[in-house]
Specification:
- GO terms for molecular function: NAD binding; oxidoreductase activity, acting on the CH-OH group of donors, NAD or NADP as acceptor.
- The protein is α/β, with parallel strands linked by helices.
- It folds into 2 domains: 132 residues, Rossmann fold, CATH 3.40.50.720; 185 residues, NAD(P)-binding Rossmann-like Domain (Rossmann fold), CATH 3.40.50.720.
- Helix content is 33%, strand content 14%.
- It has 13 helices and 12 strands.
- The protein has a 7-stranded parallel sheet, with helices on both faces. A 5-stranded parallel sheet has the order 2-1-3-4-5.
- Helix 11 links the parallel strand 10 and strand 11.
- It is elongated, with a radius of gyration of 23 Å.
- 38% of the residues are buried.
Length: 332
């Protein structure tokens, strides 16, 4: 009877996928840690020594870890961008690094659209007002005048970023009867057919009733929306960010909100997290906020488990995994 290769999982992982992997590997489950420390410091040296495949999410696979992995043949990072893995060090050892792209795209699109609805309908403000005991028989129609909102049907949504999350938001927006224009410098104008049109950033900002950000955070996108760009947005339009805070210049946004240059702002991300309760944006009644919960769903675990297991299956069968981060090791 052949000996199965050893696979070490330190990420939260779907049980069904674990059982599938047991058909081809001797699987070792390690309790997940949120510390983000090197696997070399987790007290699992015996497992590292025999591991041929490691699946991790927050634990780091660095030089110190690799020095303890004499038999390692593949690493899977349960993230779209494997920031917890020293990809260069793995590449120098001809170790393929697999990722789980778009693992949270659907739940993030859900939250972004939820935040959009909450912002344009002032639902958080209305709930706080209600819980504070402000609704009285003296003016039963007070909330009707205080919390006016807009309908989505017939309005234009501007999506910044046409990747997996942006496409998910597009699908939801079309279901609400919205017209959609997308800013994505890497896509042709007809990338979405009749569903949406790709347009320059300034046009999207100036033409949209609601703008939502879904571009990746890179050097080129830090401060994508500064004072100039924010000034292009109409004062009756709304801005939603469930992507990365640094995409918007913080000082410029605070100024725009303070001066009521926007109808409303919805944020799930902040420039420093946890954000301070005395942040100036929290003093504004046009800001709706959630504490970076876009990816907070067990469905993300199920999805990254599925993508990881499929990638490992491709690798095990000698096929180049679609999620391979360092393709140079495959041709080496």
């Amino acid at each position: 009877m052949s000996i199965k290769p050893h696979l070490v999982i330190t990420a939260a992982f779907d049980r069904t996928r674990v059982e599938e992997l047991r058909g081809h590997f001797t699987v070792h489950m390690v309790v997940p840690s949120i510390a983000g420390e090197s696997l070399s410091d987790r007290g699992i040296d015996e497992l590292l020594d025999i591991a041929e495949v490691i699946i991790t999410e927050l634990d780091r696979v660095d030089e110190a870890t690799l020095a303890k992995t004499a038999n390692l043949r593949a690493v899977v990072s349960c993230r779209a961008n494997p920031v917890n893995v020293d990809v260069a060090a793995c590449t120098s050892r001809s170790i393929p690094v697999l990722t789980t792209p778009a693992r949270n795209a659907e739940v993030t699109a859900d939250l972004a659209f939820t935040l959009l609805l909450m912002t344009v309908r002032q639902s958080s403000q209305a709930e706080r007002w209600l819980r504070a005991g402000n609704w009285s028989a003296d003016d039963v129609f007070a909330p009707y005048s205080l919390f006016r909102g807009i309908q989505l049907s017939g309005r234009t949504l501007g999506i910044l970023g046409g990747g997996a999350v942006g496409r998910g938001v597009l699908k939801r927006a079309r279901g609400f009867g919205m017209s959609v224009i997308v800013y994505d410098p890497f896509l042709p104008e007809d990338a979405f057919g009749d569903e949406a049109r790709v347009a320059p950033l300034d046009e999207v900002l100036a033409s949209s009733d609601i703008i939502t950000l879904h571009v990746p955070l890179m050097d080129e996108t830090v401060g994508l929306l500064g004072a100039r760009e924010l000034s292009l947005i109409r004062p009756d339009a709304y801005l939603i960010n469930a992507a990365r805070a640094a995409l918007i210049d913080e000082e410029a946004l605070v100024k725009a909100v303070t001066n009521h240059e926007l109808a409303g702002v919805g944020l799930d991300v902040f420039w420093q997290e946890p954000v301070s309760s005395d942040h100036p944006l929290f003093s504004s009644d046009i800001v709706t906020a959630t504490p970076h919960i876009a990816g907070a769903s067990d469905d993300v675990i199920r999805e990254h488990s599925r993508i990881a297991a499929e990638g490992i299956a491709e690798w095990r069968e000698g096929r180049r995994p679609e999620t391979l981060k360092n393709p140079e090791v495959w041709s080496a």
